[in-house]
Structure formats: structure tokens, C-alpha cells
Design brief:
The protein has 25 helices and two strands. The protein is mainly alpha-helical and about 475 residues long. The protein has a two-stranded antiparallel ribbon. This is Ankyrin repeat-containing protein ITN1-like isoform X2.
Length: about 475
């Protein structure tokens, strides 16, 4: 606590009635306490040095905040808790309640830009940073408009940029980029880190086009983004990747060729590993030579795609013409790299993309057969190598094969159980009761559409029950 009034040195236990009133949303009790303790608004009422305003904001008591702000001075609004690090506006940014933030900023316009005095440049304690990390778009939009971004250092603005990428707030990221980040050569790595964060994003986060369609823009305008938010975000992310590539591409003088090569290698490997196909397409269009870029294991992006079973990334190999035959000949320690990666089991999380051991085994077999087609056309010792690889494939997939056989047996048993139940219980009861038979001996409900629909609903219910029973 930075204000040196007499009450700030008193024990927080004295303020227990005030804390209780805030938690119970009892303004009358709080008002009475404030009137009898004139200096309590500038005092620390908790062990963490929180003022009554900090405590009210953290408890999301909007009415309390409005009333307290009306009683406090601008200096009291700027008091910090947590060892002199954060103002109450920081808590407001985390609360997602824009009304609270507006009330406070209205009475002290400097609040959005206050940072810890003893930790110069500690951007993580800026209210805007807290709002970005929380991911509340409305709060970010408001605080961005009230924060003097140009007064921040380029390094701090880049940290904000990285936070917006992490929270998928690409529109704010574009605004930060527009402030002309003039980073020193030593700090350019921060932009590479931002680009690498985009490389790690799932493919669906980055769109295939840089602009949403006219139809999507119209829908977004009419319905305030309810239906086309995803399309707009994807287009915005696409633009951001392009802008960062341009920003870094224009400053080649700041990096030596080995540094540029290392950065590009990291981007390619990360994007291929997570299957970020759109990011890779943008990057390869700017730097076509990255198709041949080798990672630390001497493999290209296609080898990474095989290792992590990323189908969409691997399919790019069919768009590079005869060069794919060249890639099929790459070897490491005398062994064909593509075949070696295809015959090994992937990580469990990649296997679990498909449910059921039998279907997982089928997918693995399809991968191996597809790699064989590419390698067989280019590898000189293809017959001996493929035979060996097949044997190794069988050995490495023995456990999965056995699990697949068990899965098929259990699934077949559960299906048989359901079929037996339907045959022995549902059909006899359906054609005998209720309703009985008519004069010609035909069940009365047999020709009823309602009854037929109900019959099939019961069959589906039994099938679902059988599946649940099987899984348990």
C-alpha cells in the first residue's frame, strides 16, 4: 500500500465488518463502517494489501464499486495491492465487467497506464494485459481505447501482441502491429515468437483466405457476429500471419542467414506437427525453399507429417510434382526415412483421433500403404527394404492388432446381444399386445405408423444401451 495514512498501518482484522458487508452486498452496513472509520478507504483491509475498492471489484459488487468510487479521491483509486503491483482496475479487467472499469476510468483517466513503480516495464501488470489474457473482447476493446499504447516500449507492445495471439484476439493484434513496432535487432526474436505461436495453432484457427466473403460480412453486420465470427477470426488470423511474415521478411539485414534458417525450421516443424496446413501454405508461398528444409532429425515437413500422422499436411506432397520422388529417397543411417516413420507407432494421442483399436489399425495400414507407393517409385533397393519394413510394421503393431481383434469380438457380441433382445422381446410383444388381433388374425397395431415408429425407436434405444454396456 502506497498511501501513508494512519489507518493503513492497522491490522486487517479491524476491517472484518467491512469485508463482510462487501461479501454480503450490504451497502448500508458498509456505509456505516466508512462513516465511523474516515480513513478506511485508503487503508489495506486484507493481508494482500487490498483496499475496499480492490475487494469490491474482486467480489464483482458493481453497486459497491460505484458508491466507493464516488467517495474516493483520484489518488486513492490509484492505490496498489500485491506489494505495490496492481491497481483495482487490474482486478476489474479480470472480472469481465466493463461497467466497473468504466466507472473507475471516468474518475481517474490515468488508471489504464499505471504500472508498478519498482518494476519498470512489467507489462503483465497492465490492466489491458489482464483483459487480453482473460479473453474478454469487450473489456479488451474498451481498455485498448483508454490505454496510451504509443507510450509503451516496442518490446512491451510485442508482449501484448503475443498475448492477443494466445487469446485468439486477432483484431487487437492487428491494431498493435499498426503502431509500427520498431524493435531493436536484439528484440526481433519477439516477433518470431509471435509467429511461432501462430504456427502452433490448430489448422481451423487460420482460414484459407485473407478476407471473409461479402455474404459473411453482411451476416456479421446484421447479426453482430453471431453467425460468422469464426469466419472473421480465421480471415483475421490469416492476415496476421501474412503481416508478420512481411514484417520479418523486410528486415533480413537484422538476421544472419543461419538465424533466419533456424527460425524458419522451427516454424515449419511446429506447423507440420500440429497439422496447421493454412500456416504452412502461407509460409511456403513466401519461401518455397522451405519444402526442402531439414529438421534436426534430417527430415522435411512431410516426414514430420508422417511422424505425427497429419494427413492434410502430407497431402501437400502431391502438389509438388516429380519432386515428391526425390523426397521418397531421403535416408537416415542407411534407412529410408519415410518408411521408417510409417512403420513405427505414433503417439497415443494421434492414435486416439480414431476411436476403436480395429479402426486405428486400419488407419495405420493405410498410412503405410500410401508411403509404400511413394517410396517404391524412387527407391533403388525397394524390394528388400519394403519387405523388411513390412515385417517391422507387423512387429510394432502387434499389440494394436490384438486390441483390434478384441474390440471387434466385443463389438460383435454386443451387437448380437441387441439383435437377440430385439428378436425375442420386442417383436413378439409388439405383434401380440396391446391391441390383440383383428378378425383375420392380423395384429391391430401392425399397420399403425405411430406404432411402427415407436418400434424402431425402441430398437435404436436398445442398440445404444448395448453400446454403453459394452464400453462399461
Amino acid at each position: 500500500m502506497e498511501e501513508g495514512d494512519s489507518s493503513s498501518s492497522q491490522s486487517p482484522a479491524i476491517y472484518a465488518p467491512l469485508r463482510r458487508a462487501i461479501l454480503e452486498d450490504d451497502w448500508n452496513a458498509a456505509k456505516h463502517f466508512i462513516e465511523t472509520h474516515s480513513n478506511c478507504l485508503g487503508a489495506a483491509i486484507t493481508k494482500d494489501q487490498d483496499t475496499a475498492l480492490h475487494f469490491s471489484v474482486a467480489a464483482k459488487r458493481t453497486r459497491f464499486v460505484k458508491n466507493l468510487v464516488g467517495l474516493m479521491t483520484s489518488e486513492q483509486l490509484a492505490l496498489k495491492s500485491n506489494d505495490g503491483r496492481t491497481t483495482a482496475l487490474y482486478f476489474a479487467a479480470q472480472s469481465r465487467i466493463v461497467t466497473i472499469a468504466k466507472v473507475m476510468v471516468k474518475h481517474n483517466k490515468n488508471l489504464p497506464s499505471i504500472l508498478p513503480s519498482h518494476l519498470k516495464g512489467y507489462i503483465q501488470d497492465l490492466p489491458l494485459y489482464a483483459a487480453i489474457v482473460t479473453g474478454n473482447r469487450d473489456m479488451v476493446s474498451y481498455l485498448y481505447s483508454k490505454t496510451p499504447i504509443q507510450d509503451l516500449t516496442s518490446a512491451d507492445r510485442t508482449e501484448l501482441l503475443k498475448a492477443t495471439i494466445s487469446s485468439n484476439l486477432y483484431d487487437t493484434a492487428h491494431k498493435i502491429l499498426a503502431t509500427e513496432l520498431k524493435l531493436a535487432p536484439g528484440n526481433k526474436d519477439l516477433l518470431w515468437e509471435a509467429l511461432e505461436m501462430l504456427a502452433r495453432k490448430p489448422s481451423e484457427k487460420i482460414g484459407s483466405k485473407s478476407q471473409p466473403s461479402v455474404w459473411e460480412r453482411c451476416l456479421n453486420s446484421c447479426f453482430r457476429g453471431r453467425f460468422c465470427n469464426k469466419a472473421l477470426m480465421q480471415a483475421s488470423a490469416h492476415q496476421l500471419v501474412c503481416r508478420l511474415c512481411e514484417e520479418l521478411g523486410d528486415d533480413k539485414c537484422d538476421f544472419s542467414p543461419p538465424d533466419m534458417l533456424q527460425h524458419h525450421k522451427e516454424l515449419v516443424v511446429e506447423a507440420a506437427r500440429v497439422g496447421n496446413i493454412e500456416f504452412l501454405i502461407i509460409l511456403i508461398r513466401s519461401y518455397p525453399e522451405l519444402i526442402w528444409q531439414r529438421d534436426d532429425e534430417n527430415g522435411t515437413l512431410f516426414h514430420v507429417a508422417i511422424k505425427y500422422r497429419q494427413v492434410r499436411v502430407f497431402n501437400l506432397i502431391y502438389e509438388i510434382g516429380v519432386m515428391k520422388d526425390n523426397l521418397g529417397t531421403y535416408k537416415n543411417e542407411g534407412k529410408n526415412m519415410m518408411l521408417r516413420l510409417a512403420r513405427e507407432l505414433p503417439s497415443q494421442d494421434r492414435l486416439n483421433i480414431v476411436s476403436g483399436a480395429a479402426l486405428q489399425m486400419q488407419r495405420e495400414l493405410l498410412w503405410f500403404q500410401e508411403i509404400e507407393k511413394i517410396v517404391s517409385k524412387s527407391s533403388v533397393d525397394k524390394i528388400e527394404e519394403i519387405k523388411t519394413s513390412k515385417d517391422i510394421f507387423v512387429d510394432t503393431h502387434k499389440k494394436l492388432q490384438k486390441n483390434g481383434e478384441k474390440w471387434m469380438k466385443v463389438t460383435a457380441s454386443s451387437c448380437m446381444l441387441v439383435a437377440t433382445l430385439i428378436a425375442t422381446v420386442v417383436f413378439p410383444s409388439a405383434f401380440t399386445i396391446p391391441g390383440g388381433n383383428n378378425q383375420e388374425g392380423i395384429p391391430i397395431f401392425l399397420e399403425s405408423n405411430w406404432f411402427t415408429n415407436r418400434l424402431f425407436k425402441q430398437a435404436r434405444w436398445l442398440a445404444c444401451w448395448g453400446k454403453i454396456y459394452n464400453q462399461s
